[in-house]
Structures are given as structure tokens and as C-alpha cells.
TrEMBL record:
It comes from Nocardioides caricicola. Keywords: Membrane, Transmembrane, Transmembrane helix. The chain crosses the membrane at residues 20-47, 68-88, 94-114, 135-155, 167-185, 222-239. The keyword Transmembrane helix applies. The keyword Phosphoprotein does not apply. This is DUF2269 family protein. Signal peptide: none annotated.
Length: 246
């Protein structure tokens, strides 16, 4: 075999389903954290009372447009992570048949569709239904994934796996808390829309500025929590502390 053919064979061997799953997982983490930082940076201009309403309106549009990256990444990181698990040592127990992985992706893409409809906004019956459905899914996943993660961390051989996947349980908990933090950000932003509408239509007043500033400030602890949790999840995924799987 010539050196060129040998290199091509090695490259083809290295490019498989697991490689694609790892690449997708890394890309989603990067866009999630990077997009979140962009949203946060744009919000700094919205709370500046000395900036005119028109410029602050542009900052709001930038913030909304940038939010699409973390919104998509948060949703797809779940089926992406399950895919990565399916290609690893844990897949021997859970993914003997491919239907479970396929079902995970169908559910993930359905959630993404609902989330994107909610992202577009509007006051239509479909938009209101999508908002309620998206929130219901996020609350359910927050509780359910925390339960699964904690179970994985406290049981000696969770789900029949004996490779000590406690790091994975901790990563699942971190992801679930990210989802919950995102829900709390939405709750804190409820006064923002009406207050900003008053700013655009009637101009700046102390009361309007107080509502805008207060809404953004109350979001900040949850934003910082998401950043920290995403980094913790990434670190756990790289180090896999305590794992006996190779």
C-alpha cells in the first residue's frame, strides 16, 4: 500500500459516526456559549438611558437575532449528547437497536420546531400554543433530567452500566439546570416588552427606565449560571472523571 493510500485509509477509518457526533457536540457548545455572550453584550446597550430609543431598538433586534444560536444549540445538544453516548461504551446497553436513538432525534427536532415558532413570536393561536408547549417541555426536562442525573451519580451501576458514568450524571444535571435557568430568564424578561414598547412610543421616563433596567438586571444571575454550567458540562465531557471506560 502506498503512503498516500495508507493516509486515505487512516483518514476514512477515523471519520465515522462517533467523529461526527463529537464534532456536532463541540460546535453546539461553542455556538451556545458564544451566542449567549453576544446576547448579553447587546443587552448592555439596551439599559443605557443616555442612548436614544432608535439605537436601543437596533440593539434589541441584534439581541433577538443573536439569540437564535443558543436557542438552537440548547435544544440540539440533548439528541447530540445521546448520539455521542450511543457511539461510546454506554451504547452497548442502551442502543442495541437504533430505534431509540432515532426517536430521540425525532423528539429533539419536534422540540426545536416548537421553540423556533415561539422564537418568531406573534399573537396567533399557534404562537401561544408553541410558547406554552415549549415551556412545558423545558420544565419537564429540568425535573426529569435532574432526577436521571442524580440517580446516575448515587447508584453504583446505574442502568446496568459498570463503567462509573457519574461524570455523565453530573453533566446531565448541569444541562438540566441550564434549561431551568433559561426559563427563569424568560420570567424575568416579562416586564421588558411592555416597558420597551412605552420607551419607543412615549419616550424615556424614570419609571420606564426602572422597569427596563430591573428586568435586565434580574436576568444576569441566571445568565452567569448558564455560562458556568455550560463550562462545567464541557469540562466533565472532556475529563470524564472516575470513568473506567476507554
Amino acid at each position: 500500500m502506498t503512503p498516500l493510500v495508507a493516509q486515505a485509509a487512516e483518514a476514512a477509518h477515523g471519520f465515522n459516526g462517533q467523529t461526527v457526533a463529537i464534532f456536532l457536540h463541540v460546535v453546539l457548545f461553542a455556538y451556545w456559549l458564544g451566542g449567549d455572550v453576544g446576547v448579553f453584550y447587546a443587552s448592555r446597550y439596551i439599559i443605557k438611558s443616555e442612548v436614544g430609543p432608535e439605537a436601543r431598538g437596533v440593539a434589541t433586534k441584534i439581541m433577538h437575532a443573536t439569540d437564535i444560536a443558543p436557542r438552537v444549540s440548547l435544544v440540539l445538544i440533548l439528541p447530540s449528547g445521546v448520539t455521542l453516548m450511543a457511539w461510546g461504551p454506554l451504547g452497548d446497553e442502551f442502543f442495541v437497536h437504533g430505534w431509540l436513538l432515532a426517536l430521540t432525534w425525532v423528539a429533539g427536532l419536534a422540540w426545536l420546531a416548537v421553540s423556533l415558532i415561539d422564537y418568531r413570536g406573534g399573537d396567533t393561536p399557534l404562537a401561544r400554543l408553541s410558547q406554552k408547549t415549549d415551556l412545558t417541555v423545558r420544565y419537564a426536562l429540568s425535573v426529569g433530567l435532574v432526577a436521571v442525573g442524580v440517580y446516575t451519580m448515587i447508584v453504583s451501576e446505574p442502568f446496568g452500566v459498570d463503567t462509573n458514568p457519574k461524570w455523565l450524571g453530573a453533566k446531565v444535571v448541569a444541562y438540566a439546570l441550564c434549561i431551568f435557568s433559561g426559563v427563569m430568564i424568560r420570567r424575568q424578561l416579562k416586564p421588558f416588552g411592555p416597558a420597551f414598547g412605552k420607551l419607543v412610543t412615549s419616550g424615556s421616563t424614570p419609571e420606564v427606565e426602572k422597569q427596563i433596567l430591573g428586568s435586565i438586571r434580574r436576568c444576569e444571575p441566571w445568565v452567569y449560571a448558564i455560562w458556568a454550567l455550560v463550562l462545567v458540562a464541557a469540562l466533565l465531557g472532556v475529563m470524564k472523571p472516575g470513568s473506567t471506560a476507554f
